[in-house]
Amino acid sequence: MELFDLTGRTAIITGGNGGLGLAMARGIAKAGANVAIWARNAAKNAAARDELKALGQGEVIALTCDVGDEASIEAAMAATIEALGRADICFANAGISGAGTAIPDITAEGWDQTMAINARGAALVYKHVTRHMIDRAKAGNPGGKLIATSSGQSIMGVNRSSDYAASKAALNGLTRAAAFELARYQITANALLFGYYETDITAKADPRFGEWMAKRIPLRRPGDHAGLEGLAVFFASSHSDYITGQCLPVDGGLCIS
């Protein structure tokens, strides 16, 4: 792992106490980075913190944060800087599955909630993280990594998922805009368009959905969480410095099937 050593770097991972976020956090911790988990469930935060502390040499903190509330984001950012001194990497991973309604049944409340967490939440996290990164750049220490958890649904159609698909498409747009705007500070921004992974969210879905997805995915299996560790480390490391503004499907070929 020396090739991808992140010692001395600090990574923020929203929604990092479970699922894809925790899988990516494991890789970041193993690579030696300090890790700040921002998520809503205090008990899951504590368990994730203890697990990550055992994996690497960096510091690990877990903060209660709701990305739907800007004051909560601002408080988490201040606490992260106070505890760890800096932020170099931010995984905007926190998200919800959406209302699950057909288009004729969309409600303003359901649509707005999905957008508030999946799109606005990521934008507000980036707002506060990049203020720090820009200040650091102006002081002579440029650079930063923004990595968003998007979805293959942002470029594909799925039944009863219009709000979720739209929120992730907005996240792709945010990624491209951030990459262009922040390049002058050597801050890169990319999005990972995940396909079908078994998580707490997918566990709540109709079992037939998983069976259908497995048949449609060219590699004929869900994504493996262990494989996300190296992916996360690559995008957090200097080896991805010349990649920015990209929305990369990570889906076993689903988007080409």
Topology overview:
Blueprint: E1 10-14, H1 19-30, E2 34-39, H2 42-53, E3 60-64, H3 70-84, E4 89-92, H4 108-138, E5 144-151, H5 162-182, E6 187-194, H6 200-203, H7 207-216, H8 227-236, E7 247-250
Parallel strand pairs: 1-2, 1-4, 2-3, 4-5, 5-6, 6-7
Helix pairs in contact: 1-2, 1-8, 3-4, 4-5
CATH class annotation: Alpha Beta
Distance between the termini: 34 Å
* Percentage of residues assigned to helices: 40-55%
- CATH architecture assignment: 3-Layer(aba) Sandwich
- What share of residues are in beta strands? 15-25%
Helix tally equals 8
What would the principal axes of the Cα set say about the shape?
globular
Unreliable parts: none
CATH superfamily: NAD(P)-binding Rossmann-like Domain
Order of helices and strands: EHEHEHEHEHEHHHE
Number of domains: 1
Spell out the key features of this protein.
257 residues; alpha/beta; Rossmann fold; seven-stranded parallel sheet; globular
Write up what this structure looks like.
This protein has 257 residues and is α/β, with parallel strands linked by helices. It has eight helices and seven strands. The protein has a single domain, classed as Rossmann fold, CATH 3.40.50. The chain has a seven-stranded parallel beta sheet, sandwiched between helices. Helix 4 links the parallel strand 4 and strand 5. The chain is globular. The mean pLDDT is 95.
Task: Give a quick precis of the structure.
Helix 1 packs parallel to helix 2 (42-53). The chain has helices spanning 19-30, 42-53, 70-84, 108-138, 162-182, 200-203, 207-216, 227-236; strands at 10-14, 34-39, 60-64, 89-92, 144-151, 187-194, 247-250.
